[in-house]
Amino acid sequence: MEFCYRCSLCSKAFNIEPDLTLCPDCSRNQQRDQPLHGVLEVELRGSVGKKFEIFELLPVEAEYFPSIPVGDTPLWDAENLRKQLGFKRLWIKDDGANPTSSFKDRASYLVSAFAKKFDIQSIALASTGNAGSSMAGIGAAAGQEITLFLPKTAPVAKLVQALQYGAKVYRVDGSYDLAYDISLEYSRKKGGMNRNTAYNPMTIEGKKTVSLELYQQLGQAPDVVFVSVGDGCILSGVYKGFRDLHQLGLISAIPKIIGVQAEHSDALCRAQASGKFTAIPTSTVADSICVDVPRNGLHALSQIKKFKGEMLTVTDAEIIAAQRQLSATTGLFTEPAGAAAFAGFLKAAPTLDRQASIVLLATGNGLKDSTTAQLGIKMPETFITSVDDIL
Ligand SMILES: [Zn+2]
Description:
This protein has helices spanning 79-85, 105-117, 130-142, 156-164, 176-190, 201-207, 209-218, 233-247, 267-274, 297-306, 316-330, 336-348, 370-373, and strands spanning 2-7, 13-14, 40-45, 75-76, 90-94, 122-126, 145-151, 168-172, 193-194, 224-228, 256-262, 310-314, 358-362. It is α/β, with parallel strands linked by helices.
């Protein structure tokens, strides 16, 4: 298999090099409050058989990956949920089962291997929390030096996790967007690799592995996939995997992808309606998808348009209720962003074909943000000292 970079805006091709992040032409007049222009995609050329290995479709050789078991996450049958909702072919992809309990490991794993291949020892990034703790964990396995910039909103568990893995953590007095800009400036001045989402082309490329796995686990592509959307990088990653499979002749059509945003962090939905991105301060209980400027917004929206995907929003109350319903029905305790995908499914259900094969992407483990999870339950307020107190 051969690989190159191709600009998602002007289609110019480039050799894959660690110093090249965005298309130099398209990113020349990049504005700070706009999504990235000139996001580079990895393009593959070659062929594989039906029983391919995922490493065959990645642009870094297997020998450079650290020894930590990323991906190959379980696809849950969720029988109770199927019965409750009347969808016989509903699955949940449990990416909280990754080593650092988040989907982001898919990107960190490839970024780590990419850095290793080019002898780059230090990696910096901004993160709402999951990507940071993920890069910290994967970096620990690879023996790399990881520097994180986390916004105030990052849940404590993710901060603790990153510190446990030995990352250098800077807490930013501001939003994820400020952390993003600071981390880019840090990398420009200090050198090393920057793993910011969409800025580093390996992030989207690593995330495509979820679609390759779905194909392998189901024996075909699903009809519909629900994905929660913040920066739009997972959305593009999911598309990229299916596009690769389509290009290789393994599937005949690209599944319908439905992107789900929180009502008050809905930049992509607004841009889809108005045709332009406007940065306004955002807030949602689903911290992983809380972004003012979706860095991969242009690219993600172009994919949605090209492949006839859909975008919808859910309220925080719907996310909290969905998290509880999923936990209590399936035993899968997912983070609020994962629950957002389920909430989106519940909202779209009346319009969906009940015979369709549908996958919900659960992006992280619920234990990563137990504070938000407490909003969906009632904590016992009293203590007992004897069974007589309750019987
Ligand atoms: Zn370009």
